[in-house]
Specification:
single chain; 324 residues; Cytochrome p450; two-stranded antiparallel ribbon; two-stranded antiparallel sheet; globular
Length: 324
């Protein structure tokens, strides 16, 4: 049992909006044991930054953790050589060179196709109609699971994220997570003979070529999907929603990166950042002329703000699926 100060939360309220409790913990108990979560949590950035490196104390290995039990034992729950061997096996699929030589072209094709379908409408919810399918279609290519629908990629990603955060033991949430991982396993099974016969630069193909055991292959593809869809779609939405149309040009270049460091639209793909889809072209004729400051702050700031309480007129835009 942790000897840190105890801090009780209302799980439902915390799920809806965790920030008041987290702010209070930072003030009163920056390291606290939360009985409702069964965990000791750190709430200050500097503490997390310094302590997460102490793997002798805070090991990533959590055999009974929700991620392990629901998604499998992936590289995020391994330390040292065990972690590095799986990371090295996956790296060729996501290296800057592969992004430049392979993914950039395919990502651009997906973006163009989606935009061509949306342009005749004149307006669209950029989150649901653009960012979500673009992220999912790109992730299908990267993982090698091109036999999935983009809707399944998005739904299964969210189901796994909900599952590994299900500290209250909600059976419905757990069941959705199991259904999602079963769907991913079936998609993997269908694609193994395909990438074995026709190897490519996908994660599935690279992990198989490296001789990784199947439990690790499955677990790491699920890891890529869980965060890869959720975080990338928000990044694309953020960049899209902050775009301003240029009246004298037919298109507006939007840099999309996987870090908060922006890369100019004409930057070399070998620039020192992990590029997701550089120089994505967004048709200016339907780009929004607004952006939501709450969303641009990052984290879940916007997602936890009801539209009626949002301080930004843009954030109250009725067509925005981010503002609730």
């Amino acid at each position: 049992m942790s000897n840190a100060p105890h801090f009780d939360i209302d799980v439902a309220a915390f799920w809806t909006d965790p920030y008041p409790d987290l702010a209070r913990m930072r003030r009163e108990a920056p390291i606290a044991f939360v009985p409702q979560l069964g965990s000791t949590i750190f709430t200050r950035r500097d503490d997390i930054f310094s302590q997460e490196k102490r793997i002798d104390v805070f090991s990533s290995h959590q055999p009974a953790g929700l991620m392990n039990t629901l998604m499998g034992h992936n590289m995020m729950r391994k330390d040292g050589d065990a972690h590095m061997s799986e990371r090295a096996a996956m790296f060729p699929a996501v290296s800057p060179r592969t992004v430049r030589d392979t993914w950039l072209r395919q990502f651009q094709a997906h973006a163009d196709h989606i935009l061509d379908e949306l342009a005749p409408r004149g307006r669209a919810d950029l989150c649901k109609a653009f960012a979500l399918p673009l992220s999912a279609e790109c992730l299908k290519d990267i993982t090698g699971l091109t036999n999935m629908r983009f809707e399944d990629m998005d739904a299964w990603s969210q189901a796994m994220i909900d599952g590994i955060a299900n500290y209250s033991g909600n059976k419905e949430v757990e069941a959705r997570c199991h259904a999602a991982t079963s769907g991913i396993d079936a998609a993997i099974d269908d694609m193994i003979p395909v990438v074995t016969k026709h190897p490519n630069t996908s994660i599935l193909s690279m992990l198989l070529a490296a001789g990784q055991p199947m439990p690790s292959v499955r677990a790491n593809i699920k890891l890529a999907i869980s965060g890869g869809q959720n975080e990338s779609s928000r990044r694309i939405a953020c960049s899209s929603c902050s775009a301003r149309p240029i009246a004298t040009k037919p298109v507006l270049p939007i840099p999309i990166v996987s870090t908060s460091r922006a890369i100019p639209p004409k930057a070399s793909p070998s620039a020192p950042a992990r590029i997701i889809a550089p120089a994505l072209l967004l048709h200016a004729r339907w780009s929004p002329t607004w952006h939501c400051p709450a969303f641009l702050r990052g984290s879940r700031a916007c997602g936890s703000t009801p539209r009626s309480q949002c301080g930004s007129a843009a954030g109250r835009f009725a067509g925005c699926s981010i503002c609730r």
